Inverse folding.
């Protein structure tokens, strides 16, 4: 029974890694769609979100089965409960990727404008935070989790820079307000991705 239990824990860990990979992939595709103004990539983000939702349910069901049937103690119990919480944060990362995709769809309908803002840089920090927070959990490394908290400060600053830049655009060129607002929302969605990664890091610590 204990061997089967630990095999199930390994399966849970493997599924969570796959979930993280799907969430990160969705985020990368959404940002790539933004960078290339490629609406076809938006559909792939939407399809990927359905995969994420299926995986979320599978992880929750396996975790709840282990809690109900095995009644784990101490460290195993903490691990399973953490998986459930992290699973929810990963699913929300997928939701934020969809939000970015929707803004990209709106931007694609508008004339292209040089807004002088580095959204890919914001996305890079957010994506790194997701990957690093999951690694900190899998390898039980609170020191790695601490690095995620530091990255969150960087992400917050980048988001603030985007906000001020887009505010300046709207004041100087009101005709570009729709482009600026959608770009501002994309940055805000990416900042929320960082919030979910921070939640994971705090759970690890």
């Amino acid at each position: 029974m204990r061997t089967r239990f630990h095999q199930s824990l390994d399966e849970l860990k493997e599924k969570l890694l796959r979930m993280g990979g799907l969430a990160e992939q969705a985020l990368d595709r959404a940002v790539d769609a933004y960078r290339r103004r490629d609406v076809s990539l938006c559909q792939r983000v939407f399809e990927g979100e359905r995969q994420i939702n299926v995986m979320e349910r599978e992880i929750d069901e396996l975790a709840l089965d282990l809690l109900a049937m095995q009644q784990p103690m101490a460290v195993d119990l903490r691990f399973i409960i953490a998986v459930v919480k992290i699973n929810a944060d990963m699913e929300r990362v997928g939701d934020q990727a969809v939000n970015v995709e929707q803004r990209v769809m709106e931007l694609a309908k508008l004339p292209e404008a040089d807004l002088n803002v580095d959204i890919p840089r914001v996305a890079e920090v957010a994506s790194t935070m997701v990957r690093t927070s999951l690694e900190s959990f899998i390898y039980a490394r609170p020191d790695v989790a601490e690095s995620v908290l530091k990255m969150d400060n960087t992400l917050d600053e980048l988001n603030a820079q985007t906000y001020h830049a887009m505010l300046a655009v709207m004041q100087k060129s009101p005709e570009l307000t729709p482009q600026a607002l959608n770009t501002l929302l994309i940055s805000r969605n990416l900042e929320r991705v960082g919030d979910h990664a921070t939640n994971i890091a705090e759970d690890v610590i």
